[in-house]
Write a structure and sequence with these properties.
Oligomer: heterodimer
GO molecular function, one term (chain A): ATP binding
Keywords (chain B): Membrane, Transmembrane, Transmembrane helix
Number of domains of chain A: 2
Protein name (chain A): ATP-binding cassette domain-containing protein
Number of helices of chain A: 11
Distance between the termini of chain A: 47 Å
Radius of gyration of chain A: 24 Å
CATH class of the largest domain in chain A: Alpha Beta
Shape of chain B: globular
Order of helices and strands of chain B: HHHHHHHHHHH
Largest sheet of chain A: 6 strands, mixed
Strand order of the largest sheet of chain A: 5-6-7-3-8-9
Helix content of chain B: over 70%
Strand content of chain B: under 5%
Structural class of chain A: alpha/beta
Largest sheet of chain B: none
Protein name (chain B): ABC transporter permease subunit
Structural class of chain B: mainly alpha
Distance between the termini of chain B: 31 Å
Order of helices and strands of chain A: EEEHEHEHHHEHEHEEHEHEEHEH
Family (chain A): Belongs to the ABC transporter superfamily.
Largest interface: A-B, 53 and 45 residues
């Protein structure tokens, strides 16, 4: 379990992480979603004691990561796949990390095998592809067989088979009652892997909900194609219904479900050529959330300029 | 990468301890090529220069009024070897910043002072070993040449033994000083500049300025420069040494003081910084 309370990180005047609080629960995969520069990596580095919070606290299973007697078994992390000396072999990189905790050679060979690196383990890391580097980073995270798995952009550079493997691994660890916290800027990836999503934008938490809750937001729209769009718009034009048009003859209607639209159109004699309920995806929800955030930012800037 | 089920043989009780950190740093140091290169360079420079000087003495032994003390021959390579081992100490830290592996290290071992302490320990022991082996080899190579000229090093002569062993200690302190600089500066090029500047360029600069201006107080400061003071330990035969009025061991102690300062500053900033 990861618990952040009032976590803040400032770099000079810039606030990278702005007073965020959240809990990442065991037994589930929690996605950490946000555009680049939103504060995902900074937050993960603070969890691991790599960055010092300007304010607030963050604990793993009740204590600060740096205070535990055996950090590698408490939490394993993939932070930066490039964080390896290019002149060292994959095996020696893992051996050096394992040595800090006296983890035996057998375990090193196990994680090498598990991540499919057996064939290249003795090769110098400098020649690794991005995907191989990513696998090595995941191998390092698994070394201590940790209770908490923290993965920053784990599927970056992986081939489709590798992506599927990471997904299975994350689900497997969560299934064992462990805590899995993985960041991504790919909504589709999080939707497939995570049970719970924390969305961050500009250092603030925009949403903290289950995937189902986020997707099930009552913003369901219906696409309607008709020969008489203006008449249909006038017919449905009432409170709580919003209508937009992206192409001639095509309306997107929210606030009235497909059955209502069909009934009213029939009674007015309007022919409908298409009537499609548009299921909201996590991506829609995510874009809606971050769009608001961006609008808020530019509004604030304009207001500032207006007062000058 | 297909199976997820796994065995988990992580040992009975994994623990982050200082001896474990030392072992980890030793694996890191010995598994990169630069360490091997620097070790070989040091050995080559120390042995090569000693052999060349010993051989060169043949030409001047008869004419010179004051023969070169043989311990000086052994330690002559130190001036160059210190640069190689200084680089070894600096990049033991800076290379982890250059390629980002410091993050992997600290994510596995978040006790920062322990990490830096283990690094300094491993670099210190490794340097001492390389320097001692180099000196002994230089001795073995130059001795037959010197003996035939009648100026062999006398192992019963405490002064000569002090000079030879002191040279190895001097090199160790230079490497440790550089570990501190590496942790403070964090950039390879910058750290090497500082180390070369302090141990190589600074004394030369002082000598030039001194030759022009001839200031007394400048000469006194010169005697307390890290390299000048530290190299006092290698003086033999009361020859006035390397331009410092300090006793041999006092000189080495001054260098040890600078090293302690560098490492203390390094522990403070390394402990406070992010990443």
């Amino acid at each position: 379990m990861i618990e952040a309370r009032g976590l803040t990180k400032r770099y000079g005047d810039r606030v990278a992480v702005d007073d965020i609080s959240f809990t990442v629960r065991p037994g589930a995969v929690t996605g950490f979603l946000g555009p680049n520069g939103a504060g995902k990596s900074t937050t993960m580095r603070m969890i691991l004691g790599l960055a010092r919070p300007s304010a607030g606290t963050v604990t793993i299973d009740g204590r600060r990561f740096v205070d535990g007697p055996s950090p590698l078994t408490q939490a394993g992390a993939l932070l930066d796949a490039k964080g390896v000396h290019p002149g060292r072999s994959a095996y020696h990189h893992l051996a050096a990390l394992a040595a800090t905790h006296g983890i035996p050679k057998r375990r090193i060979l196990e994680v090498i095998d598990l991540t499919g690196l057996s064939a290249v383990a003795d090769r110098r890391v400098g020649g690794f592809s991005l995907g191989m580097g990513q696998r090595l980073g995941i191998a390092a995270a698994l070394l201590g067989d940790p209770q908490v798995l923290i993965l920053d952009e784990p599927v970056n550079g992986l081939d489709p088979e590798g992506v599927r493997w990471v997904r299975t691994l994350a689900r497997h660890y969560a299934g064992e009652g462990r805590t899995v916290f993985l960041s991504s800027h790919l909504m589709s990836e999080v939707a497939l892997t995570a049970d719970h999503v924390i969305v961050i934008g500009r250092g603030r938490i925009l949403a903290d909900a289950s995937v189902a809750e986020l997707v099930g937001d009552p913003k369901e729209a219906t696409r309607v194609r008709t020969t008489r769009p203006a008449d249909l718009a006038a017919l449905l034009g009432r409170d709580g219904v919003s209508i937009s048009s992206e192409a001639p003859g095509v309306l997107e209607i929210t606030g009235a479900d497909a059955a209502t639209i069909a009934a009213e159109a029939a009674s007015a004699g309007i022919v409908l050529l298409e009537l499609t309920p548009l299921a909201s995806t996590l991506e829609d929800a995510y874009l809606a959330l971050t769009r608001d955030e961006v609008e808020y930012r530019s509004d604030a800037r304009m207001a500032e300029e207006a007062t000058r | 990468m297909t199976a997820v089920t796994e065995q988990r043989t992580i040992g009975s009780r994994p623990r982050l301890t200082y001896p474990h950190l030392v072992r980890s740093e030793w694996i890191k140091l010995r598994t990169v090529r630069s360490t091997v290169w620097i070790g070989t360079t040091t050995l080559g420079v120390m042995v090569g220069i000693a052999a060349l000087l010993a051989w060169g003495i043949k030409g001047i032994a008869d004419t010179s009024e004051q023969p070169i003390p043989s311990a000086t021959i052994l330690t002559a390579g130190v001036t160059l070897a210190q640069l190689a081992l200084g680089v070894l100490g600096a990049i033991a830290v800076t290379s982890e910043y250059a390629n980002g592996s410091m993050r992997s290290t600290l994510a596995a071992a978040p006790r920062r002072s322990g990490v830096l302490g283990a690094k300094a320990f491993v670099v210190g022991v490794t340097t001492l070993a390389i320097a001692t082996v180099s000196t002994v080899l230089a001795f073995l190579v130059s001795q037959p040449i010197l003996t035939s000229e009648g100026t062999a090093i006398d192992l019963a002569d405490g002064e000569q033994v002090r000079a030879v062993l002191g040279g190895a200690l001097y090199l160790t302190l230079v490497a440790l000083f550089s570990v501190g600089i590496g942790a403070i500066v964090r950039h390879t090029a910058g750290a090497i500049c500082v180390v070369v500047g302090v141990f190589f360029a600074l004394p030369v600069l002082f000598q030039i300025v001194q030759a022009i201006l001839g200031l007394d107080w400048l000469a006194r400061i010169y005697g307390y420069l890290p390299s000048v003071a530290g190299q006092q330990v290698m003086t033999v035969g009361g020859s006035g040494g390397f331009g410092s009025s300090l006793d041999p061991w006092a000189g080495l102690a001054v260098l040890a003081g600078y090293t302690a300062l560098s490492l203390t500053a390094a522990f403070i900033v390394f402990g406070r910084r992010d990443d």
